[in-house]
C-alpha cells in the first residue's frame, strides 16, 4: 500500500499544468517521429535530449517518455497505410493492416492498432506498478542459454504456424540469417562477409531492408497493376472509431494472450520485435479465423500491436530496476538519466521515489493522452488513401529514401533500399514469404551470439540447453510449436485422404 | 532537419565566448564510435551538456552515434572528413585495437589529436554472495574449476579480453571469456550468476554494486582510485585495493580522449584544445568523472601525442602476445 500512495503522489506530480503540457507536446512530436520511417523513437529522443538538460529530471523524463509513446503509436500509421513499417516492431502489423487499408478499411485498422497499443501499454504499466521488484528478479535468471531458447521459441512459433510451403519459409529464413551475419561479429570480433567494402561493415540495417522489402516493393507491384490505388472509398468519419470499438470485445482472448506474451518478452528482454512476431504467430495458430490472416483480418492487427506495446513498456522495467536497457530508446533514456544525475539500477526505486513514481504515473497519463490524440487523427490519415496513387507514390518513395538515409547518414543505404525493393518484388512474385527473412535478420545475430556465449561457457557441451527447468521448458515449447504445424497437417491428411490438401493457402505468412 | 532544430534551440542558450583566431561557424558534430547509452556516448553527452550549460561555444553541439564494426565505421568516416574542423571523434583504446584486429586501413595518425580527458580504470568484479574475498581465492578456485570459470566483458579481442588473457598468463589459471555487447549486459549476467566474474569499468558495474548484487575484488591499476566518497557497502572507490597490491600483477587503464579529422589548421586545433580544457574544469565534468570513477588525466599537445605513441606500442605488444592481431 506504501507503493500505492507513492503512485498517487506521482499522479500529482505528473498532472501539474506544465507537465501535462510537456506530455501533449511530447506525444505530438513522437507521432511525427514515428510516422517518418528511419527517424524512429531512439533518434527522436536523442535529438531532444539536449533540450532537457536544464529541466528538472521528472519533467524531462515525462517529455521524453511521451515522445516514446507517440512514436509507438505513430509507427503503426505508415505500416497500415503504405506497408512501410516505421519501426521494427510494426512489421507484423503490416501483414493484415495493409490489406485492410487496401480494402478501404484503413480507419478500422488504425483504430484497432491504436487501441491495441493502448491496451498493451497499459498492461505493461500495470506490471511495472505492481510487481516490479519480483519481475526484476526473474529477469536475472536469463543467461545466454535462456536467451537463445527465447529466440528459438520466437522462430518456432512463427514458422511452425505457417501453412504455406515450408520449404519456401525455410529458404527465406536462411537468407535472413545470412544477411544478419554481415558485419562485425560480437563473439570473435572479426568482420564477416564485408569483402573489404567499408559500407558493409555496418551490416544490413534492419530498417533499410524493411523499407525496401515492404514499402518500395509494394510500389513496384502497384505500378505493375496499372497505377490503380485501391481503397479510394476510405471513409472519413469519426464514427468508425466507435464502430470498431464495438467489435473489439469479441477478441478478448487474443488481446489477453498478446498482452501476456508481450509483458513476458519485454521483461525477459526478448524485446518488442520478438513479441510482435510471436503475438501474431500465436493468434494465427489459435484463432478460429486463422486461415484469413494475411488477407485483412482485424485480429491480425490487434495481436502484434498489443504484444509489441506490452513488451515496449515492460522493457522499461529492467531499465529502471536493473539498469539494462530493454530497447534502443530505453538506452537513450538511460543515458539521459545519468546526465540528470540519476543512477539507474537497483537503488533508483529506493533513492529517487518521486522520480520513479512520477514517471510511472506519466506512463498512464501519456498513454491516455496519446490514444485520444491519435484517434482524433484517424479520419485525417484515412483520407490520405483517397489521394490518387500517381501523387502519393513519389511522395512515399521520397519519404522512404529519407528514412533509409537517416538510419546511418549514408547514401549507400538508399541504393540498398532500392535493391531490397527489387528483392521484395521478386519474392512476392515467386510466392516466397518475406516475414521469415525479416525475422531472421532482426533476431538472427542476437540468437547466434546467445548460442555461442552459452557454448563458450559450457566448454562446448550442448547440455546447457536443458540444464535447468526454465531453459528446458522453453526448448520443449519451441519443439512443440515447430512440429505442431507439420503434425496437424499430417493428421489432417491421414483423416481426409480424399480432400485435396495440396493447395496450401497462398502467402498466408507474407 | 533534426540538426537545424537542435541547432536553433541550442544557439539561443549559447552565451558570448572570448575571441579566438578561429571559431566554428556551424554546429559541431561529436561522432561517438559506440552505440547510444554506452560509456563513450555518456562522455560525449556530458561534454555536450557542459559546453551548452556553461555557454563555452557559440555553436551548438550535436552527438552522432556510429557504432558499427567496433567503432571502425566512425573512424573511417572521420578519416574521410579531412580538413573538416566541425567534426570531432571520441576515442578509447579502440582507436589502436580496431585497426590491429580487423585490418581496417585507418590509424590514429590520420587524425589530429586534440586532448585526452581522462583514463578509465578496470576492476575484477564477482557476484556479491560468492565466496571469494581476494583475487588469490578467486584464482585458486579458477585453477580447479572444470569447465573453466566464465569471465564476461565487452566485445571480443578488446580491453576486457586482454585483461582476461593477462590474468591467465600471470596466474596460470584458464578462463572462458564470454563477450557481451556492453558492460551493462555483462554486469547483469554476473548479478544473475551466469558468470563467475567480469572485468568491467567501475561505471559499468557500479549500479549492481550499489544494489548489493556484485562487488569488486580489486582494481587493475598501479594506484588506488582517487575518490574517497562512500559508494556502496560503506566503501569508497579509494578503498578498493589494487590488484598488484594483492599479488595479481596485472594492470591496464584505457584513455578517453578527443580527436579531429586530419588536415586542420593549428588555429582550429587550438580552439578545441582550449574548449576541452575549459570543459575539464566545469562542475558537470568533475561530477561525471567522480560518478564514473574515471582517473582525471588531462593532456594536450606533445604530452598527448607522446602518450598515444607509447599506448599504441603497448597495445600492439598486448595484442600480439594474446594472438589477436589480424593475419593476412
TrEMBL record, chain A:
Transmembrane segments: 20-39, 60-82, 109-135, 142-161, 167-184, 204-223, 261-283, 319-343, 355-382, 389-408, 414-443, 464-484
Domain (DUF112) ranges: 22-439
Keywords: Membrane, Transmembrane, Transmembrane helix
Coiled coil location: none
Tree of life domain: Bacteria
Pfam families recorded: TctA
Classification via InterPro entries: DUF112_TM
Protein name: Tripartite tricarboxylate transporter permease
Natural source organism: Chenggangzhangella methanolivorans
UniProtKB/TrEMBL annotation, chain B:
Record key words, sorted: Signal
Keyword Signal: yes
Record family assignment: Belongs to the UPF0065 (bug) family.
Endpoints of the signal sequence: 1-21
Identification of the protein by name: Tripartite tricarboxylate transporter substrate binding protein
Keyword set includes Nucleotidyltransferase: no
